[in-house]
Amino acid sequence: MGERKLLKEYKRLWQARKWMKKNEPFLQAWHAHLGYSLDLFKTFQVPNTPQMIAERYGYRLDLLERWVEVGVALGHLKEKRGGKVQAKKSMVTYLSKDSDQNVGVLLKEMMELHIPTMLTYRNLLQGTEVKILEEDIGYTVAETSGLLESVMFPKIADVVKKQKVKSVLDVGCGHGGYLHRLHQKFPDIKVNGIESNKEVQKLALKEAKGTNISIIEADFMNYVDQDQYDLLMMNNLLYYFTFEDRLRLFKRARKLLQPKGHLLIMSPLARSKHGQRFASGFNSFMSAHEDMYPVPTQKELTSYAKQSGFSLVTCTPVIREGGWYILVFKKK
Ligand SMILES: C[S@@+](CC[C@H](N)C(=O)[O-])C[C@H]1O[C@@H](n2cnc3c(N)ncnc32)[C@H](O)[C@@H]1O
User: Fold this and answer.
1) Which end of the chain has fewer CB atoms at under 10 Å, N or C?
2) Which atom of ligand 1 has the smallest separation from the CA of 194?
3) Distance 309 CA to ligand 1 centre (A)
4) What residues form the membrane-spanning segments (predicted)?
5) Does 144 contact ligand 1 (Cβ within 6 A)?
6) What are the chain's domains?
7) Phi-psi category of residue 295: left, alpha or beta, with phi > 0 → left and psi -120 to 50 → alpha
8) Which of 160, 151, 197 is nearest to 176 (CA)?
9) 105-136: b (≥16 Cβ within 10 Å) or e
10) Beta carbon of 221 within 6 Å of any ligand 1 atom
């Protein structure tokens, strides 16, 4: 074989290797997701043989053995004596269903919603309708958004303190995590939430039992409130609204705010300085769904603000790798 031809073949092999390597992290997510969804890490919290577990739960032994092999290769599981294996402690802590530290819902969202959606792109692009499985998406999305609370909340608390906020309305409050944190830190302020998904609102209401946090089931677009608030929040909400509706959203927000009240928006921003990879991937997912829309750019938000009587006070990157910002606007 001529030298040039050989070189060409090696280059081709190198490219194939590159894509193989790029796909390798998927194995980790696959393994973790399966382990979480069947609670296998919990099952292997104490040393067990795959055979014992397969018999106990009626699983196919050959497939369980493969999952175990992958787990050992990835370091998610450790080999013990007598053919037994044990899950690594962190896998049990963060990926067991009964652990209050578990992050399994994020894997669920990625593996059951985002990846399947991305795989439908070929058909969608060509105009074929595809039904994406959306079982309990409301619960899943509200839960994964809640994972950001510990990082985002201090920034919200700063605004509440600085602006001497006495009342807050959280629009699309999900399971009400921010409302709880606000109530705990500032017990004297009024904290209300509205949530359009009935199941999500029901759960939020249950969590708020025994407090004076109010959580109403309502679509913000038709929501009527006698009160006016010092602060209105829209956290991870904008992608539910078309570009035209976002301007209406700002106008509605303005009506519900006290003079000089503030509007706080938390969202990934498209084409921003930080997190472009994440935001562009996120937008690909959003556009593949009928009722979801791309996240905004900062320019777009400031234009809505201008048209609806707000001025931008701050725009702070909070999670740079995800392009997540908090923008604070003041009612003029
Ligand atoms: C992604 S979750 C975010 C939850 C919470 N704000 C957070 O950041 O953790 C967005 C929530 O907004 C709710 N939502 C969407 N459109 C709404 C509307 N028009 N009015 C009220 N809530 C809405 C959804 O049901 C969902 O629970």
Assistant:
1) N
2) 21
3) 24
4) none
5) no
6) 3-99 (1.10.10.10), 140-331 (3.40.50.150)
7) beta
8) 197
9) bbbbbebbbeeebeeeeeebeeeeeeebeeee
10) yes
